[in-house]
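Q: My labmate handed me this sequence with no annotations at all. I'd like to see what the chain might look like in three dimensions before we decide whether it's worth expressing. Could you predict it?
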Amino acid sequence: MYIAYSVNSQIQYRLDFLIEHCILAVAFFLPISLDAATLFLGVGTVLWTVKMIAVKRLLFKRTPFDASIALLVILSAASISGSPDPGFSFYNYYHHMLRYILLYYLVINNLNSLQQVQRLVWAVMASALLVTSYGFYQYVHGVDISTFHWVDGEQFPDLKVRIFSTLQNPNLLAGFLVVVMSLAIGQGLYTERISNKLLLFALVGVLGACLVLTYSRGAWLSIVAVATICGRYYNRKVLWLLLIPLGALFCQDAVMDRLMSIFNPTDTSSTLRIALWESTMAMIWDKPLFGIGWGAYWLVYPEYDFFLNNPAARIVHAHNMYLHIAAEIGIPGLIVFLIIIYGHTKKAMDILSHTNNRWVTGLMLGIVAAVLGLAVNGFTDYIMFNVQMSMLFWLLNAVIITIWQGNGRCNK
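A: Here is what I predict for the chain of 412 residues:
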């Protein structure tokens, strides 16, 4: 019996080791290659299943948000019935939703110590450094953005380069950078070792420089929100320490012109966004309960094209997270999604307020700031339309629950 128990323990230990490294690989490859991240997510899920078979019991930890997540899954599935192409919507739905749910529960059920969470966060930061390096490479060697239609050439004649690195679009890169900067700022503020503090804030500086070069106006506003919440919960002086260097970067003419264009009604990007919001609200008005169908926005938009009047135009999202979600899966689906965001954020704030572990405090502050950044960005864009950014969002939520479940250990 002892030998059998020992063998089973060794098998479980090896499976735990492999599953953790699959999760680390998902976090690392997430902004670099969706295919690689998906591969490791699949392998990790298979190993988790093998582990449950080996120990002959269901290894599944319940969370306070299981019911809300299940309701979101159901409402999203129900929206498929309203899609003009149910086959496409179903294919899109299960490929995306399955990734989000598997990643969320894989992390929660297989990371059991603070050290594992620390390694996960460092994997995200290491990946961000690699992504940023490639972004700088693009800037140095130049990227012709004229064919991408990301910038109004008449409004910004001097703006020739917007970096996007591995994330296909400058706004997506900017959103990713805001999330990682938030994590680094939170940990940098609370770490006690000077060497770690310098390292983390050096990373913030590098990511911030890359963020400026994306020329993403929504992300710039998001980082102001991040600095504000860090100043609110740590020290108000931090607000100025973070905003002054960013302000120096924004003093460049091209950057300032881009920033001030937010308030310029003649900017085609801003005008298009307003037109998209009007079209999206019309979609919501017509199908408020279950929406137009998961992933079906680009299929339905031509029917509500009041601005472009171009049947060939392919508009994939509403440039507003809240309107887009309400349009595709209905107002009840949006409400459930907001409940999930609020619930996880409140849980992170509760941990932040009660834990005695400074690293956990910094991590929770960073995650709250990251989610706030995504929420602010969501008013003018929808970067979580991108699968990688949505997976990152669910990864952050899973980290909150992992820390909450092990709160006794985290206080030590």
